[in-house]
Write a structure and sequence with these properties.
The structure is a homodimer of 481-residue chains. Chain A has 481 residues and is α+β, with helices and mostly antiparallel strands. The first copy, chain A, is built from 15 helices and 18 strands. Chain A has helices at 9-19, 57-70, 122-131, 148-153, 161-164, 199-203, 237-249, 263-273, 295-311, 325-330, 332-339, 355-369, 398-415, 431-437, 440-453; strands at residues 24-26, 50-52, 74-77, 94-97, 104-108, 113-116, 134-135, 171-177, 183-187, 212-219, 221-222, 229-234, 257-261, 284-289, 316-320, 344-349, 372-377, 383-389. A seven-stranded antiparallel β-sheet of chain A has the order 15-12-14-13-17-18-16. A five-stranded antiparallel β-sheet of chain A has the order 5-6-10-8-9. Chain A has a four-stranded mixed β-sheet with strand order 1-2-4-3, with helices on one face. Residues 469-481 of chain A have low confidence and may be disordered.
Chain lengths: 481, 481
């Protein structure tokens, strides 16, 4: 493994020749925001040496050829909304900010697909699809800021995964630039394909470590004209969770979203948004979104929903008019952080039938450590976003205690068949944890793939895993705490 | 790249120690069926040196350790129903027949999943799921003979892909033995997972070249109580195909299968099955299967189906009672071969909105070459099973002419955004074609992954692609025509 080269004035000039000097920022002029992402600001800054804004696939290819020849690390960056440090340039080098590549290239409503450049904002894709009477089903909570290539890089989930799957399921075709600067199109606009290895699904979720996405062909779905939202309030989390399995098994209701929000988070959110969002009854809540083509269908589903809610001891269930519930849902992370700036956030995923067991373990553990927790999970797919906050524990004890706590929490998660990340990715933040808990054979397979794609290890090094033992003084070990 | 070692008596004894001597067959005693699969018998025989029947994952692991140390090729075999030569031991060596590993390990109807060993027959999985009121959605036409690990290895599609996706979409978790003999569990029983690379989807469709599947956790779906089948007869293929887009866009009908069968194949099938299967009107047909929970829902869908059929100039549309249409659909390949033993079969997939353009090109080309064709495609997902038959062309001219024809057909397919294989895989039969048509960068990525997993190239060598230039005298170039 070579050490990386430094970015010199000569290299900066070369980059300027490719993209235009106005699209290169070097050294001290680089804005601070490029030294962190939405999940790592508090954990330290790691600046790139040079920031480049490529305008097209050829720009990306030429930049990567230079970087690969000279051994300069390259970190791709989309919306900067990642929560695991995936876009943080751990080893300096080049940050490729893809924001200029933000065109919607083509939409075919009849064949239900859209071709977009990597930095199209996810909400814009959703809105353009809507304008054509169609649904783009990828729906991460950061949709107003994140971009499609970032969603693919983390295989983002979001609010509609229970019916439509995750971002990887929405992708027909990817144009990717390899670390060697070759432009290749993977996959196809096909419902099935057994023509060699399925490389699209390997790139999805690889967090920018295998190639730079320069164009995407995404699937669009039929859009139901009615998407009513309901709120069901329960006296405790266990009762709320018990409804999830019922909802998923029911053949009438067929929900597209089931979101769990605990009682305290409801109050935090309303305070943060400075408005009444939820219903008068206070408790642990499920937000349930349904699809329907007629009002009669909504009515039928609503009757069935009330039935099963009441069997599970629901305190209140009501339709929430309009769309105000979703901005509130999306703001959850921010609302909690305002009230609890000290804390750690998790993205754990467990089998849906193990959510109750997971929350039970979470309660036991937080009680034992005298912590508190907040929960706002994609309950329909088992993805539990939780924030652990110090509660009674002093600032002095917190860092050490929370590490001990997390070790126990992850161990419990794996015992239930869960994993560290449902949709945010491993990035920088969770790689040390992953190394401790993953089957070494699985890790070795991932590392072998990385080496096969990127033998010089220039592309987003130090993400998901390191390529060498952390004991050696290599260039890509963790630098953030 | 080393040449492979020969299987000696000593090695056979070692294998016997692992699996029991009764589970090893050596040399001349190996039945002929192991020298071909369902798609390659006519194209030549290629025997293994030794045939081994492992009983469990440890057996597989120990066998692979020996093979990897001694450089003996290993070809896994499931039901032997593959159509691309994937299970043919091109370089001799060991065939691992997994038939002893055929237990259903566990079914959890509430959580809707099943854990099975690799050689459980697909139809048995379907039936056990049915007995628990659930659906296993993988449904290849060979379901009465093929096994689940083979379905995963080719990422088999089948009759329900339009609603439920292909086999890879049905898999939660895979236990795999690596070429080095390590046992690893990939994936998880999770609706989403961003914890490192998505290796399950890489193994699916890799045709036994990256690892041996020893256990599978598959998803089960809610089973609709009513699954009515309809037949719509059209005056020509174009009219039949024009209905496909309507059916997929319709929000009431929501079909689970749309199968296209041409007029001549209908007659061939009825002659082969020696019974009236279709309706009295003769023409190019669509078989349409729907799901419903009530008779009222069936009625509503049926009314809508008739409406859109008649707009498209349908000659007749009728419900086909019971399940007799599906055994007929599954027998298509055999029925055609009885009447037309000389011919070539294709597994081309195109975007669904390009089926009409594809069939139009197919007609033009067959006319130009004076060939005929039969078609029975999974029209709902663009996967066109066609058989090209000599028609007026003499036996002498046929081999040369059909090669010229195929080159033009594949070129037209790729121009439409299609690919060589929708569900059968590349195996041995299509690798030379693939090499000529694939983007070399994509091929190089696949080869790099293969090398990363299997540096000694012992696992199913010579499938999908070769690892060296065909000009060199390497051990794994094409031996079949």
């Amino acid at each position: 493994m070579p050490r990386y080269a430094k970015v010199t004035k000569t290299i900066v000039n070369q980059l300027g020749t490719i993209v235009g000097t106005e699209n290169v920022i070097w050294g001290q002029a680089i804005p601070e925001q490029y030294a962190y992402d939405a999940g790592t600001r508090k954990e330290g800054l790691s600046y790139p040496e040079v920031l480049v804004f490529p305008g097209n696939r050829q720009d990306v290819a030429e930049i990567l050829k230079i970087a690969n020849n000279l051994l300069i690390p390259v970190t791709p960056r989309g919306g900067g909304t990642g929560l695991a440090g995936g876009a943080v340039p751990l080893n300096g080098g080049i940050v490729l900010d893809l924001r200029r590549m933000n065109r919607i290239v083509h939409i075919d409503p009849a064949a239900r697909y859209m071709v977009v450049e990597p930095a199209v904002r996810t909400m814009d894709i959703q809105q353009v699809a809507h304008q054509h009477g169609l649904l783009y089903a990828g729906d991460p909570c950061s949709s107003d800021e994140c971009v499609i290539a970032g969603n693919i890089a983390t295989n983002a989930g979001g609010n509609k995964a229970i019916k439509y799957g995750v971002t990887g399921d929405q992708v027909y075709e990817l144009e990717v630039v390899t670390p060697q600067g070759e432009i290749v199109t993977l996959g196809g606009r096909l419902k099935k394909n057994s023509t060699g290895y399925g490389l699209v699904r390997l790139i999805a979720g690889s967090e920018g470590t295998l190639g730079i996405i320069t164009q995407v062909t995404i699937k669009l779905q039929k859009l139901a004209p009615l998407l009513p939202n309901f709120l069901a309030v329960f006296p405790n989390l266990a009762a709320a969770i018990s409804l999830v399995g019922d909802l998923l098994a029911d053949t009438v209701i067929d929900p597209i979203s089931i979101e769990l929000i605990d009682r305290q988070t409801v109050l935090d959110l309303e305070r943060y948004q400075q408005q009444k969002i939820f219903v008068d009854a206070i408790g642990d809540c499920l937000i349930i979104q349904l699809e329907a083509y007629t009002q009669a269908e909504v009515q039928k589903k609503w009757i069935k929903l009330q039935e099963i809610c009441h069997i599970r001891g629901c305190l209140a269930v009501a339709e929430i008019e309009g769309e105000k519930i979703w901005p509130a849902r999306r703001a959850w992370g921010k609302a909690i952080e305002v009230d609890h700036p000290v804390g750690v956030s998790e993205d754990i995923v467990v089998p849906v039938d193990q959510i109750e067991a997971f929350v039970s373990q979470l309660k036991t553990l937080t009680r034992a450590f005298q912590f508190q927790f907040r929960i706002a999970g994609h309950a329909g797919d088992g993805n539990m976003h939780i924030r652990i906050i110090p509660g009674e524990v002093s600032a002095l004890e917190w860092p050490n205690e929370v590490n001990k706590f997390r070790e126990k929490l992850y161990s419990a998660t794996y015992d239930l068949g869960g994993r560290l990340s449902g949709e945010h990715g491993i990035g920088l933040k969770r790689k040390a944890i992953l190394r401790g808990i993953i089957d070494p054979v699985e890790l070795a397979l991932m590392q072998a793939i990385k080496k096969a794609f990127d033998p010089n290890h220039i592309l987003n090094p130090g993400k998901i895993f390191d390529m060498m033992s952390p004991a050696t003084n290599n260039a890509d070990t963790v630098i953030l705490p």
